[in-house]
Amino acid sequence: MQPFRYVRAADAARAVGLVAADPGAGFIAGGTDRLNLMKDRVEAPSLLVDVNAAGPRGVAAIEGGVLVGAAARMADVADDPQVRAAFPVLSQALLASASPQVRNMASVGGNLLQRTRCWYFRDASLPCNTRSPGSGCPALAGENRIHAVLGGSDACIKVHPSDMAVALLALDAVVLTEGPAGARRLALDDFYVLPGATPERETVLEHGELIVGVELKATRAAARSRYVKVRDRASFEFALVSVAVALDVEGGVVRDARVALGGVAPRPWRARGAEDALRGRSLGADVIAAAGEAAVAGAAPREGNRFKVELAKRAVARALNEVGGLS
After folding, report:
1. CB contact set of 117 (below 8 Å; sequence gap of 6+)
2. Beta strand segments in 143-293, E
3. Can you give the pTM of this predicted structure?
């Protein structure tokens, strides 16, 4: 392993200043992903700044919702009474993530920034446009069973691994940051970027910009929400397809809807077509089927992952049936 320096930051300003001043520096909280990337020689930071003391680690009530500290542990957020009551999809997504041991260590901020599990990216001996821009994407014609069917490009078809981010997208979460240029509020829907021709850039964060919290508003849809995850095994496995849905239903009619998919795109995928198919309609078999079809409109599967298209439709139907009380 390449030698690196390690510093504990007492506050966000100190952490931001240290990382911004060193192009090779990065932040660390739980370390459940970053340390593996270092061991695999995918990343080699010159400095790691520990941010566990740089901000709140819990869930705090705010007007109209909650503020989740970026250093909060996944397990603590999943078990928080406010989260379980007002944002069940978030608790469910977190409990479906990783293992209990990892959830006890992994932070909310780190989870949002975890890197793809594409095996070409994780093997430093192989070409990968995300890790080494311009080197190629072997997944395009190679082993691509776990890869994207939506939002990919000729440069990259990785998938984003976070369960939590899919749930937060369905909750219209806002990411709070502190950076060299000051504080920002970023809608999660605007936080991630698609690979296009520059797959090495995965978020809109600038170097030295630190996630300090995630803000959630308590809404009728958030309280009526569900997370469905389909994976190869029941424990400690990333999603082949996942779905987060949140519905505002009155008199049997869907007034508003959020549908987000995981495991199918390089970022958590907002299925706006599915939302449009639901609004103003009663949840029935035909409406649910139409939402499933709309959720995968424009899919471009590869040889190894064509099954994901049908799987996504069925996962959307299952989530809608469960949250609508139809199953």
Report:
1. 146, 159, 161, 238
2. 174-179, 182-187, 210-217, 225-230, 241-250, 253-262, 269-270
3. 0.97
Provide the residue type at 118 as one letter. C
* Total residues belonging to the chain: 327
C-beta of residue 221 within 8 angstroms of C-beta of residue 257: yes
Residue 282 pairs with which residues in a beta bridge?
Answer: 253
pLDDT tens sequence across 24-61: 999 999 999 999 999 999 999 999 999 999 988 999 99
DSSP string covering 121-187: HH-TTS--TTTSTTS--GGGTS--TTS-SSS--SS-------HHHHHHHHTT-EEEEEETTEEEEEE
CA distance 321 to 324: 5
Tokens 């009728």 found at: 220
Nearest to 162 by CA among 208, 111, 226: 111
Tell me the backbone φ, ψ of residue 164, rounded to 5 degrees: -60, -40
Instruction: Tell me how far apart the alpha carbons of residues 246 and 230 are, in angstroms, rounded to a whole number.
Output: 18
Please list the alpha-helical segments (H only) found in 21-148: 34-39, 74-79, 81-86, 88-95, 100-105, 108-112, 119-122
What is d(CA 86, CA 59) in angstroms, rounded to the nearest whole number?
A: 12
At 229-266, the pLDDT tens digits run 999 998 889 999 999 999 999 999 999 999 999 999 99
CA dihedral 15, 213, 116, 264 (to 10 degrees): -160
User: In this structure, are residues 202 and 193 in contact, taking their beta carbons and an 8 Å threshold?
Assistant: yes
All residue ranges of the chain with pLDDT < 50 are none
pLDDT at 326: 62
Q: What phi and psi values does residue 280 have, to the nearest 5 degrees?
A: 80, 10
Asked whether 168 and 90 are in contact (CB, 8 A), the reply is yes
